Amino acid sequence: SSVIKNMSADGLRLETKVRDIKEGSILELKLDLCGANNPVHAKGKVIWVKQLSLEDDAPYDMGIELTEIEEDNKNTFLKFLCDMIYNLPKETRNV
Question: What is the DSSP letter of 76?
C-alpha cells in the first residue's frame, strides 16, 4: 500500500514503505481513485527512488512512468485527472 503524492497523464510520484523496489522495475498498479467506482489497473516503470530521510524506517518517494492502463480503465483515469485539474485554484494551474 502506497500513497500517491503527485499524478499526471504520464506518471506519478508515490510514497511507500516498500524497500526492495529498484529503478527500472516494472510494477502492476491498482489505483483507488476518489470518486471512482472501481480501481484503475495499470503498469508502470520505476524511474527513480529516493529515501525521504536517513532514518531506518523512513519511507521512500518513487517516480513511476505509466506504460499501460487497461482499456476499461482509461476513461476513469482521464476523468479523474480532468476533475482534479479543473478543481485546482486558478493560480496553481499551468496555463
Answer: H
Q: Cell numbers at residue 5, please?
A: 503524492
Contact 76, 31 (CB under 8 A): no
Cα angle at 65 between 54 and 35, to 5 degrees? 95
Q: Which helix (H) or strand (E) holds 44?
A: strand 40-51
Residues above pLDDT 90, as percent of the chain: 39
Q: Are 63 and 46 in contact (CB under 8 A)?
A: yes
How far apart are alpha carbons 63 and 83 in whole angstroms? Answer: 22
62 forms beta bridges with 14, 49
**pTM (predicted TM-score):** 0.79
Dump pLDDT digits (tens) for 4-37: 888 888 999 999 988 889 999 999 999 988 888 8
Strand 26-31 relative to strand 11-16: parallel, antiparallel, unpaired? unpaired
